[in-house]
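Why this split exists: single-chain examples teach little about how molecules sit against one another. For that reason, every record in the complexes split bundles all components of an assembly together and asks for one structure covering all of them. Below is a record exactly as it appears in the raw files.
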Amino acid sequence: MQEISSDVIRGYNDTIILFFLIKEPSYGYEISKNIKTLSDNKYLIKETTLYSAFTRLEKNGYITSFSQEAENGKRRTYYRITDSGKSYYKEKCEEWQLTKDVIERFISDAQ
Amino acid sequence: METIKNYLETMFTNFPDTMEIRRAKSELLSMSEDKYNELIASGMPKNEVVGTIISELGTPEELAESLGFFNSQQRETPVEIVETNTVYRRLVTLDEAADYVGDCALSKMILGLGILFCIISPAGPVLGESFRYIFGNNAFSEMLGGLGVGFLFLSTAIGVGFIILSGHKMKEWKFLKRELCAVDGETENFLRSELENVRLRKSFSLVVGIGLCIISVVPVSIFGSMSAPLFFTAGLGPAMIFNLTGLGVYFIITSGSKSHAYEHLLSLNTRMAA
């Protein structure tokens, strides 16, 4: 099976994460699991990649983190999207529409 | 879970112990724990779970990159050029840095030995000649005297050979002086901690070296004050001056070899174009 190229998807890891955080605050493993499920196991994000995306998003003010106890008593770092994170997500979605539109013009079945 | 914890520990060994790094480690551990519990609950065999988690965690290189250190390609290719302020610098890798320090230490050791042999060479004739105070003027004393002179030439020759050899070892590192170079964050941290480690040994070596030079005259004074036989006052005592001084100088020369090398590498990043 053709594997997804990390170089291509790298620019959209932030978008993918924000997609989940727009619905509700979440934590590392839940997000990585949701990415796997929603992509039908086609995209497995590495923990290191995910963590670096969190720190980058937080540094840019797109998300904030807080600590919360889960039902089983385990403390986890949760992430919540900020208003500027929401508008950044919207921008990225528009950027992708444009990118997709442009790239698709150069994709052909003819060999 | 222990295996995963250990793997994470190893992944982080080369990073500085900062709040940021600690937070990264605990977050990665927390994510791995969640994944572990869920995969175990799904009925996957334990070994498989550990394998899956470790393979999906990412490599130390990816970790370094994600934490804002130099990326893996730059670390693996020694001749990779790093751009800093539009000046191109050749990146010195961690392995190269360790090799350089090793070569510096070896070169200084060879130089120290060379000088040691040169300094102790006069001890040969001094001691050789003095045997006639014990055995009298006969053929045996003549022979020992001759051996002493032979030692003078041999020791000087070995010394000069070593001194020439010591410079040869450093030839391949000339680029450090010629070109603008840089070390990455990980290497810099390694160098700083190593520099700290050798500091005590450096001072100790220096103290021993200076001490040996000072006490080199002690045997002569003791033999003199005890009015010992001529063999001691005119032979062994003076010979000991050369030997102890030579040894002292060896310690002094080699004392700072490693720390100089570390300091030199650490100064690379701040060096400007000539």
